[in-house]
Specification:
alpha+beta, Immunoglobulin-like, six-stranded antiparallel beta sheet, five-stranded antiparallel beta sheet
């Protein structure tokens, strides 16, 4: 559903004496005009607008008067979400100018004439309430007792969703009106619905589809119910309940059916006299204190869903329709209610998630400012045509202008995910265009072998482009944790944001220092003890494992231990023990490291068999190898961290440590890679992978310009592991280094080799 509404509100210092706001014995606060076209014979007019907080929840303080100031029958069809109002009123013969007055006290009892028109078909939906779907009476009672979502006049009973709610969900509905038949005779009726439906004429069930079930797509014998109707108007009702996110409500008929096999047709809108229902745009708002008031239209134009996310980005167009006398030579300022602003007269704005937002338009001319605020409901529109779907690229130029300091934590998370989604689409293989699919299928000859160098260059270019958006995501998402000013609050929302942006900074951007600052900042801002401990553990992990700052890691680990005193098992407790193990490995205390790695494994309480463990470890290993070969270091890091979380004791065996060293070397973090050999020597000098680690460490020392350290590492390997199958390679490397050949020494091939697991 596309929502278009006039939004208004007043602030101005002088009272208007020339215009009367008194109707029904009371003074109202605001007025809108409605001019009905004189060439239309409307008996009922529907108007919609935003009431800037002036209409009470019961809708009693809104009336409609004709030009002679006499009140006419009116009823509110929908109030909300936000400040939205839809109302209907009956017209008076020969009068075409009407005024909608609202705000203040309700009119005196009996001042508003009773509703008399029976033209049109009115659909009303209400919040779902548990009921017996096999019983009309139960459904009717549930409907009467439930809260209204919205109502409006429709052409016929034919809907596949709730037109008054942009979000799919269960609801109750009722169509009511008068069915007019031109002549007496037999009329057959059918219903098709998602879940139960009951069609009544003159308060008697004609046809029903009780219970929980899918719609009927094929009319078969026995599904049509025939009745005799006299010429004239007959009371018509259709009750329906949708118990899930999908809906369908359809009523059809067959005039003078000649056969038992149904041939249904839609009940024509003329049968309900829907042409007598007119829709007219309200005019400018005036108030008791201001004749000229800012005004605008809102159009929810489209949305962009994010992967695996129930929240979507929503694109909204705003149009300034303030009086020219107010805006001439004036400055306009929009406040969209989400911390973002614009000075564009008719801006397009992207809301990072659905919700009710206080939208304010200010018009400043000289020293005088007129402004109004309206609560506007923003949600995903029901866009069904593919060509009308919005694309993320349409939204990115707008999102790039946002001030992260003014976004709450949920909105910041959405902004981060939007940038991440863009990065993912850059790296994803291109989808074949529709026009080329058939041609591609017709091609029988295989394509020529691609140029490896060209493929490599294209891959690097894509990764560089994707990294720009990942960096933008981290730049925005870090704000609540490293900045002094931020609107982001709330433990649950902040921890979700930290879990998103912390690993992104560490592994995707490769900025471990920023990752540590994010987690440390989160630990200071979050109040909950367990969540605070999670942040402290992550900060310590980065400080010790990436930045080699044991002095920073230890107090963080001690604080986390204090916060988790009563939690000895589970993933978080295991991670704490594992990071303690890493800390002791770095400090050279192998015995303590092995102890904590064992405790980390025990805290998980894994029930996997040896075969299952081996299979999972192999899967992690193969995936990491592939990501390292392809240069996808962020994915390699993600795989490695999942591996050590599931099998922390693998740090003792050494193969996991070797893979981490290869990861750091691939990222050209040679100091981090080299020190892992020292850690493994402390934890388990008998590891079957220690010789590979030492050769890799020597290689990294050479790249750091530390040839003497490289020679020391290689000579230690010859001395301590003379039986290693890598001894020939080690001797060759030593000879080259001693001869002054400082190019990268030979490294043993990755993967299995004699003596390794």
């Amino acid at each position: 559903m596309t929502v278009v509404a006039l939004v208004t509100a007043p602030i101005c210092p002088t009272r208007l004496a020339a215009q009367s706001f008194r109707r029904g014995g009371v003074e109202f606060e605001a007025m809108r005009t409605v001019d009905v076209p004189q060439d239309k014979n409307y008996s009922v007019v529907v108007a919609q607008f935003f009431h800037h907080g002036q209409i009470s929840p019961d809708g009693r303080n809104v009336v409609v008067s004709a030009h002679d100031q006499k009140l006419v029958p009116a009823r509110v069809l929908q109030l909300g979400p936000g400040d939205y109002c839809r109302l209907a009123f009956e017209t008076v013969g020969g009068q075409f100018s009407y005024e909608v007055l609202y705000g203040g006290q309700p009119p005196e009892e009996g001042a508003v004439p009773a509703w008399t028109s029976n033209d049109g078909l009115l659909l009303e939906t209400r919040e779902y309430k548990d009921c017996n779907l096999n019983s009309l009476e139960s459904v009717r009672q549930a409907f009467d007792a439930s809260k209204r979502i919205g109502s409006d006049y429709v052409d016929n009973v034919q809907h596949s969703y709730n037109p008054f709610s942009l979000s799919p969900g269960p609801f109750l509905s009722r169509y009511s009106g008068y069915l007019r038949v031109g002549s007496a005779g037999t009329y057959g009726f059918l219903t098709s619905s998602q879940d139960c439906s009951f069609l009544l004429i003159d308060d008697k069930i004609v046809v029903d589809a009780p219970g929980r079930h899918p719609p009927m797509y094929q009319a078969t014998r026995g599904t049509r119910k025939d009745i005799q109707l006299t010429a004239g108007a007959h009371e018509f009702e259709y009750y329906h309940a949708a118990t899930g996110p999908t809906a369908m409500m359809v009523a059809a008929w067959e005039v003078a059916p000649a056969d038992s096999k149904p041939k249904p047709e839609a009940i024509p809108s003329e049968a309900f006299r829907t042409a007598a229902i007119g829709r007219v745009q309200t005019g400018p708002v005036t108030t008791r204190v201001a004749k000229l008031v800012p005004d605008f239209l809102v159009n929810i134009a489209g949305d962009v869903p994010l992967p695996d996310n129930e929240l979507a980005l929503v694109g909204v167009r705003f149009m300034d329709i303030s009086p020219n006398a107010l805006t001439l030579n004036a400055k306009l300022l929009w406040d969209f209610g989400d911390g973002q602003t614009s000075e564009t007269p008719n801006p397009v704005h992207v809301y990072l998630r659905p919700g009710v937002y206080p939208v304010k338009l200010s018009v400043k001319r000289g020293t005088r400012t007129s402004e109004m605020t309206n609560r506007v409901w923003i949600d995903r529109p029901n866009v069904l045509k593919k060509e009308e779907f919005h694309k993320l690229d349409d939204y990115l130029p707008i999102l790039e202008t946002y001030d992260p300091k003014k976004l709450d934590a949920v909105a910041l998370g959405q902004l981060v995910l939007a940038y991440q989604f863009k990065a993912t689409t850059i790296l994803a293989p291109p989808e074949p265009e529709e026009d080329n699919k058939g041609k591609a299928e017709e091609q029988q000859e295989p394509d020529a072998e691609p140029d490896p160098e060209k493929v490599r260059q294209e891959g690097e270019a894509k990764r560089a482009e994707a990294l720009k958006y990942v960096t933008a995501a981290v730049t925005a998402g870090q704000v609540p944790f490293v900045g002094e000013e931020s609107a982001a609050q709330g433990d649950e929302d902040l921890i979700k944001l930290a879990r998103l942006v912390g690993p992104m900074a560490r592994d995707a951007v490769g900025d471990s220092l920023l990752a540590a600052r994010i987690w440390h900042g989160a630990s200071r801002k979050i109040v909950d003890g367990q969540l605070k401990a999670e942040c402290e553990i992550e900060a310590a992990d980065v400080a010790a494992g990436d930045l080699l700052k044991q002095d920073v890691a230890k107090p963080l680990l001690e604080a986390a231990t204090a916060h988790l005193q009563k939690i000895a098992t589970g993933p978080l407790a295991s991670r704490l023990q594992r990071v303690w193990g890493d800390y002791y490995a770095i400090t050279g205390d192998g015995a303590s490291a092995r102890k904590f790695y064992g405790q980390a494994e025990a805290a998980l309480g894994s029930s996997r068999t040896h075969i299952e463990r081996t299979a999972w470890q192999g899967a992690h290993s193969r995936s990491t190898e592939q990501f390292l070969k392809s240069g996808e270091f962020d994915l390699a890091a993600k795989e490695l961290r999942a591996w050590q979380d599931e099998f922390p004791a693998d740090k003792i065996d050494g193969y996991l440590t070797l893979m981490f060293a290869r990861y750091w070397a691939g990222r050209q973090k040679y100091a981090e890679a080299a020190r892992l050999a020292e850690e493994q020597l402390a934890v388990n000098a008998d590891s079957p992978h220690i010789d590979q680690l030492l050769v890799l460490a020597a290689d990294c020392e050479v790249k750091r310009g530390q040839v003497d350290r490289a020679l020391a590492v290689l000579n230690q390997l010859l001395k301590d592991y003379p039986g290693s199958p890598l001894v020939p390679v080690v001797r060759e490397n030593i000879a080259k280094l001693e001869a002054g050949e400082v190019e990268t020494p030979k490294r043993p091939p990755a993967g299995d080799r004699p003596g390794s697991k």
